[in-house]
């Protein structure tokens, strides 16, 4: 039962991160996003 809740938590975190990234992309534009990706890695 505990691992079930862990799976849900991880899924929610990943989903939230994807949504934030998509909204961020829409606001700042593709080029700016890729530039930030390059500077992170």
TrEMBL record:
UniProt superkingdom: Bacteria
Claim: Kinase is one of the keywords in the record: yes
Keywords for the protein's UniProt record, in alphabetical order: Kinase, Transferase
GO molecular function: kinase activity
Record-given protein name: Diacylglycerol kinase/PAP2 family protein-Putative bifunctional membrane-associated kinase and phosphatase
Taxonomic placement: Bacteria, Pseudomonadati, Pseudomonadota, Gammaproteobacteria, Alteromonadales
């Amino acid at each position: 039962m505990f691992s079930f809740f862990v799976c849900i938590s991880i899924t929610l975190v990943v989903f939230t991160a994807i949504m934030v990234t998509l909204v961020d992309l829409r606001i700042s534009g593709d080029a700016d996003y890729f530039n930030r990706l390059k500077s992170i890695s």
